[in-house]
Amino acid sequence: MVCYYTTLESIHPGDGKNFPKPGQTITMHYHGTLLDGSVFDSSYRRGQPFSSPIGIGRLIGAWDQCVPQMSIGQKAIITATPEVGYGERGFPPSDSTKRNSQIRS
């Protein structure tokens, strides 16, 4: 499955029935890494899942594009180029990132 400037690689299926809709608040766990595998952010390390409305421009474009294609419980690796990631304010600037993400609810 490919999104604009983003790839979504499913590594664990979800329920296949419940997909987030734009404006709906999702709760998910994730590891954010650079392509070399170094972690720059992780809800797992903080011990608390992340919650936010999806599909309304509050999150990086890669999540707004790909998370609505994931069903509850699904785990996937979302790879994003800077255009739909962090752009010039990235880690480092203009670097692609990966997010190992799992939707909880």
UniProtKB/TrEMBL annotation:
Residues 23-105 form the PPIase FKBP-type domain. One of its GO terms (cellular component) is cytoplasm. Pfam families: FKBP_C. Its EC number is 5.2.1.8. InterPro entries: FKBP-type_PPIase (IPR050689), PPIase_dom_sf (IPR046357), PPIase_FKBP_dom (IPR001179). The keyword Isomerase applies. One of its GO terms (molecular function) is peptidyl-prolyl cis-trans isomerase activity. PROSITE patterns: FKBP_PPIASE. Transmembrane segments: none annotated. It catalyses: [protein]-peptidylproline (omega=180) = [protein]-peptidylproline (omega=0). It comes from the Eukaryota. Keywords: Isomerase, Rotamase. SUPFAM superfamilies: FKBP-like. Residues 84-105 are annotated as: Disordered. Belongs to the FKBP-type PPIase family. FKBP1 subfamily. This is peptidylprolyl isomerase. It comes from Wallemia ichthyophaga.
